[in-house]
Amino acid sequence: xxxxxxxxxxxxxxxxxxxxxxxxxxxxxxxxxxxxxxxxxxxxxxxxxxxxxxxxxxxxxxxxxxxxxxxxxxxxxxxxxxxxxxxxxxxxxxxxxxxxxxxxxxxxxxxxxxxxxxxxxxxxxxxxxxxxxxxxxxxxxxxxxxxxxxxxx
Length: 153
Hints:
Blueprint: H1 2-17, E1 40-42, H2 52-56, E2 62-66, E3 72-78, H3 87-91, E4 97-99, E5 114-116, H4 117-121, H5 124-127, H6 131-134
């Protein structure tokens, strides 16, 4: 009973002070942290098809199909499986993969989030993302890239 009264007191305190904790989404876009990891943006022009992103992905979100002469033929992305760990972005030597701040993508089933490059080009929320404008890669967290002492937090 005391816990219930404490909870009601907290609710009443916040109702009286007038401070708002919610956002009128979608009319008002929410503030997203600069460290937020959203959907991938893949640049086929930058990619050197080294397959490091495919090898490091912990749950096979990325599959790269190679042709007979070991050139990249197809980039497949299963966004519904992704845990947004950012390992693919960190391992890419040419920044062909960037995790953007886009979180506004929906589907009725998880399987609808499996895309190849042709399908990704036709998805409106994917095409509107400019990865370099949406989020610069956070290279300061890498050892040797920042100034001063290294902070291992």
